[in-house]
Task: structure prediction
Amino acid sequence: MGKMIADLEGYFRKLVRGRDELLLALEQEAREEGIPIVGPLVGQLLGLLVRATGARQVLELGTATGYSAIHLARACRQTGGRLLTLEWDPGLAERAQANLQRAEQNASAEVRIGDALEIIKALNGPWDLIFIDIDKENYLAALPDCRRLLKPGGLLVADNIGFQGAVDFNQAVFQDERWLPVQLLAFLPEHSPERDGLLLALRL
Result:
């Protein structure tokens, strides 16, 4: 067996691709205001997953200032799809909408204001991909509707599953044979926090 690369985190930090001025500005804003964002690596992963799956109907629970929504919407533009992103805080939702407009993604995305847990109860499927990034204590409550809304073969992605509040959610997905899950412990440069977990789960 060969030797591991020295300073793995430093090595992989250098492999994160550059971002445009808007994304860099949102990253700086997040640092200054303490706004948790997915960061460049997870953002690029989200875009990759949309494109790889050909997702056309994409739902995001938790918008904040729209950092991840920009990545998702740009990918939806490539697939001919559309993003619906949900944010309970009107101030953040307004900022997200403005940022999507700056990114020229208004045609690919809609920001809806309200409690994500309530909004998804009124939605109909099928959806191709759902990304969850709300309060971790609400992940478990959102899970039944996520399963209802996703098409068979649809993809559920959850951020921050390394948080204590996500423990019950993690176990519920792991123990439910109707999901095919992969729970990853990862180093995620510029993520909040950088050492966290991600869930990818296929709806069977």
User: Anything to note?
Assistant: The chain has eight helices and seven strands. Residues 38-203 form a domain with the Rossmann fold fold (CATH 3.40.50.150).
